[in-house]
Automatic annotation (TrEMBL), chains A, B, C, D, E, F, G, H, I, J, K, L:
Alphabetized PANTHER family for the sequence: CALCIUM DODECIN
Listed SUPFAM superfamilies: Dodecin-like
Domain of life: Bacteria
Pfam families, per the entry: Dodecin
InterPro entries with a match to the protein in the record: Dodecin (IPR009923), Dodecin-like (IPR025543), Dodecin-like_sf (IPR036694)
Protein name: Dodecin domain-containing protein
Length: 71, 71, 71, 71, 71, 71, 71, 71, 71, 71, 71, 71
């Protein structure tokens, strides 16, 4: 029977240009090893500061993927 | 006397490029029928994934507008 | 003895183009008077509407900085 | 069988004198068109300021009413 | 280009037997008038009591559907 | 004069079969001593596990009842 | 040594005129049996509706008092 | 260019008669030194008790104002 | 010395019949590889809709298990 | 049949030395009258100040125990 | 009449030994310039890590003090 | 290009003496296999009770570390 189980992982992506790029970076890195990613929810946005200027945008997001025991 | 009543509606805008565009899309669609929109608060940001890449950015937002009984 | 005390202030930046610019504007204005800013957390995103279109993006953020008694 | 479905709407009432009046204003306006209102929960209280004084009290509240498809 | 706008409505379903039935009742009532329902999130579960026994299970849920201006 | 005061108590019901039964068990036990129970809100659902299987469903709920000083 | 233990109880006061009166009613009823009440925090405000008008204001509040084993 | 930066401060007003007066007291005291106050959000309501009666109503609120570096 | 470290993982179980079954499915799948599962907390309940009817119940839950470095 | 009902009570412990001692004080006071205490969750930590120094640490915690009607 | 206005400030204290010391450090530093501090609430606890070991405990807390316009 | 991706894991440390030790235990166990740990946020504190006394302090914390696909 086909009811699946998913697992949720929290990732943080980082970008010097935007929160969209930060999220994209996290998703593309994760998708090389996690199967069947479909939706990611933003759980936190923040940014780092250097010399009084914004240095990096960071997006923390929850991503769910097929749970495969043993993986 | 002029104290008004407002109603709050929750909308979800979608965009392939950014959360700002997703929000803009929701506002512009709504403003064709809702009167006197002034502020919208983001209540959730997420994104959809296809083939391991970000496909769409989605912004869920609360928008308040003049309540007109019967409308 | 070197254990420091920090203070957290909440700022709101505003931009006609993006939430990233709104945040950047708040950080750069604050960094002229606050010392040792390192991280800022977004606590709220919203936007203002004029004539049925998005007018301004606003980002509210917490920024922490060295606490200097008397300052 | 008679198990009903309700719908929840968020309203904002405004008053120059109190949050109770703000809530009352929202309820009385809504009750002209919504059937079977019974309880409303406050979800936010705020106020507007003009010339350094409180101008209006605003109460945001959730009100549930009988859902009638097509209405 | 076809990026859509969705609207989120909050419904309360009621059932004498289970929260699953309460949710099902809300969804089936709503689907007669709302287009393209896909996911509903539970935001609150409660129950009513009569004569010291559980009388009804109630499920409050957010359901999003295609936004059609004018509808 | 008839304005009453209520007290809210938090209970946890437990069942081997469902969260509905867990809630029912808490309500029926409480109703033997508490007067005028009308609504109970679920504040947490969890479950216990034994030997890799779900053993018990637990429902934590807030129940309000007439406050009688001295009781 | 005299470090005390307090207990927190949740009460709901009801009033036809204001949330302040609703809170006052809960406090005065409780103070006849609970010792050493000092602060009460509002955790929820709502109201009941009859015939399309506000009927009662209700204030739910946490009140802490000296814990006396056996009481 | 005119995009402004705002700062958010949290104040607590106190009154023997109502939460509205408590909020008003905080706003009027603050407006003597803070520029361009426009909206204040209530973040907490509580009350103090003396001799078994409500002594003071307290309203904690966030108020935002123009940020002026060096001020 | 025997004080253990646990790790918390978030899973999503899916069922066509109930949230209890959805949770059970997640627990039984996980227990084939995770050691010493004892309690799981529900963090979100939702459901998917197809053709205007509830298709699947989904339960998201936190489960904690013995942390074994290297596993 | 053995499925039990528990009741949750909120206590505040106080200590001049640490939050651990504050919690311990609440638990040991309660355990003289409440049966079968097993877990307590911290819901709030705060502290009181006298003459510019920390005077007492306070821990507010939820403790659940067997519910015995009539007790 | 003398109803006061308070202001709430968020501080972060840091310590190599405990969260109690971190809080104490923040309070003692602040009390040299802020008048009439009485209670501080913990809003966040975290810690920093260096070389795989806990380096510093940090306590973020809200402290309220008499508001003096112009100060 | 060097923008990294981090992963966030939730751990629970346990100690018979303090929450600081509970957190330390979780960090030191994790640091044997996770690279580049820098900050951990406390998400929950609780304690277990045996024979009416506090038996163990438990600290649940989020720790973020470099995400290495395949690890």
């Amino acid at each position: 029977m086909a009811d699946s189980v998913y697992r949720v992982t929290e990732l943080v992506g980082v970008s010097t240009s935007s929160w969209e790029d930060a999220a994209r970076s996290a998703i593309e890195t994760a998708s090389s090893t996690l199967r069947d990613l479909r939706v990611a929810e933003i759980v936190k946005l923040d940014l780092t500061i250097e010399d009084g200027k914004v240095a990096r945008f960071r997006a923390r997001l929850n991503v769910s993927f097929k749970y495969e025991p043993g993986a």
